[in-house]
Amino acid sequence: MTTMTDTSLREFKMPDVGEGLTEAEILKWYVQPGDTVTDGQIVCEVETAKAAVELPIPYDGVVRSLHFPEGTTVDVGTSIIAVDVSGGAAPAPVEEAAPAKPAAEPRPAEPAPAKPQGRKPVLVGYGVAESSTKRRPRKGVPPVAAPVEDTLYGATALQPVQGELNGHGPHGATAPRPLAKPPVRKLAKDLGVDLTTVTPSGPDGIITREDVHAAVAPPKAPEPATAAPAAPVAPAAAPAPVVSYDGARETRVPVKGVRKATAAAMVGSAFTAPHVTEFVTVDVTRTVKLVEELKQDKDMQGLRVNPLLLIAKALLVAIKRNPEINASWDEAAQEIVVKHYVNLGIAAATPRGLIVPNIKDAHAKTLPQLAESLGELVSTAKEGRTSPAAMQGGTVTITNVGVFGIDTGTPILNPGESAILAVGAIKPQPWVHKGKVKPRQVTTLALSFDHRLVDGELGSKVLADVAAILEQPKRLITWA
What we know:
Layout: E1 2-3, E2 9-13, E3 23-29, E4 36-37, E5 42-47, E6 52-56, E7 61-66, E8 72-75, E9 79-84, E10 94-95, E11 134-135, E12 166-168, E13 174-176, E14 179-180, H1 182-191, E15 206-207, H2 209-215, H3 257-272, E16 275-283, H4 285-295, H5 307-321, E17 327-330, E18 335-338, E19 344-346, E20 348-350, E21 353-355, E22 358-359, H6 367-382, E23 396-400, E24 419-423, E25 427-433, E26 436-450, H7 456-471, H8 475-478
Parallel strand pairs: 14-15, 19-23, 23-24
Antiparallel strand pairs: 1-10, 2-9, 3-5, 3-8, 4-7, 5-6, 7-9, 8-11, 12-13, 16-26, 17-18, 19-22, 20-21, 24-26, 25-26
Helix pairs in contact: 5-7
């Protein structure tokens, strides 16, 4: 039985990286028992219900044990790695006398009850859940662990991975982990490039996007039918598997991470808040023309200028005129909480599922500032770098189904919010304009609201205000 000095052992617990989440799945270990680690070194990547994040270790020492293998879902507050901080070398564990038996890999040590001392972990918010740790079964070929797509609260989003991060090869040999920024790792994953085979050209040996593109081999010609089939390669993680109707008749997709959280949240919202949805079809020709004019404005150069920007601004003005719509329902206190700020959520479809990051204090931003924030929000979501903090605290949401060519829908409220605006596709349609039927740019808006705190009059006023502004965008000035 392995013995160890408890006073030198530090147990690093699974932190709450998403403000109230109760569990996370270990996607990838970057260290193994015996490796030396330093304070701030990334030791693993985990996926929560919100995003994928890398966890830094807050100790200097030697890794003694990893308590859970990759693919395990671990409760927040549960120890996941033990580090010996005594400062000595990594001695072999002392074994008690026992009958000789074939060598085998030791089982992960049980989490030690010792309380961590010294410097506090940078990840905080522990809240131990009274539930058992679960490990999802792995079927078929073991999947290649997905490279990081996010960083905790964006703190290291633009930083290269630092330190002697060890990766372990198929035969147990250790090799330096390639240095690359999170967006570059995602690009390599998307292109199927193994970063260990890429020659870095960046400073300090950092792999750049150009290095990844240069490593992409040209497609090979199809092999003859008589050739032996190539060995299967585990694919990178994808948003959903491609169903082949030439083989199996079904494909089962595990519901986890963002998709699992979204499903639970939508069910809870749909069956908790009494939804009402109202619709209006509006001529937005003047708004479309204004968008084109703004694109040429020197104050808007380099910013994301599109109809969604003006729709967002129109909703903010409508909320200013009808502030009671920007509220939430406190069930425990039986109170309506009116917010005097607007954290504007924008629903975004990502490879990990639907997320709703929000623009903090959107009500206080000028149009150029709102355009800049909207551009950053969209690009960050597409790159998979949205932090858990960016998805907390929303007050009202816009979902743009028009980008998919959809005319309208009945959106479900984001939990904790009282209203959500769905924007349909903007299309040329016949419209009565100045007494004549003319082709005009037309869209349909749908506003869903919580009927416990938003009655039909208030919901109608907000939707009518948004429509009126988009029909006559000069009201952005006269009503603001």
